[in-house]
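Work Package 4 report. The design task specified in the project plan requires that, given a folded chain encoded as structure tokens, an amino acid be chosen for each position. We show below one input record used in the internal validation round.
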């Protein structure tokens, strides 16, 4: 039975995910659906926790200070809503759970950065890239159709205005 569960959970995993560690400064690009529109929202902050790295339920908790208030978000790395995770800076830390950062602010909340190979961000998921290109093409087609509709409506209004102006000239 556990083989079946493992097989199903492995099918849900993304083929490649960036190696994210505690202390990293990351940008997480998340797909947000609002009504019938979708957009990509970026959240940048420090990874304060990593959970179950090799599992299909691997999760990171990202923290940032926004307008003087600490904001934390947890992301499932294999979720279809997480488009991409980009490591900006790698921090030198000695533990997995950096809960002590919650009590700090300003310079004391900074982590010492260490050099790392930025090529870890070069992970490509062909299916996600093709879906993104398809969504962009659909959005462009919809925008062009809307612009054509708007131009037709404007042309109709201009024709009516010219007709009214012509009648006005006849009545003088």
């Amino acid at each position: 039975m556990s083989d079946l569960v493992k097989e199903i959970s492995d099918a849900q995993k993304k083929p490649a995910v960036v190696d994210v560690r505690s202390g990293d400064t990351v940008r997480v690009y998340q797909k947000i659906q609002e009504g019938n529109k979708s957009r990509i929202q970026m959240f940048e902050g420090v990874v304060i926790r990593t959970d179950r790295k090799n599992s299909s339920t691997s999760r990171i908790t990202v923290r940032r200070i926004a307008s003087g208030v600490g904001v934390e978000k947890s992301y499932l790395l294999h979720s279809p809503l997480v488009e991409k995770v980009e490591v900006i800076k790698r921090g030198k830390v000695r533990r997995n759970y950096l809960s002590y950062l919650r009590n700090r602010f300003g310079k004391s909340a900074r982590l010492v950065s260490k050099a790392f190979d930025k090529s870890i961000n070069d992970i490509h998921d062909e299916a996600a890239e093709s879906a993104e290109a398809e969504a962009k093409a659909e959005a462009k087609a919809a925008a062009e159709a809307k612009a054509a509709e708007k131009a037709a409506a404007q042309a109709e209004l201009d024709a009516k205005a010219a007709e009214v102006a012509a009648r006005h000239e006849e009545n003088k």
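The chain has a mean pLDDT of 85. Validation will be extended to a larger panel in the next phase.
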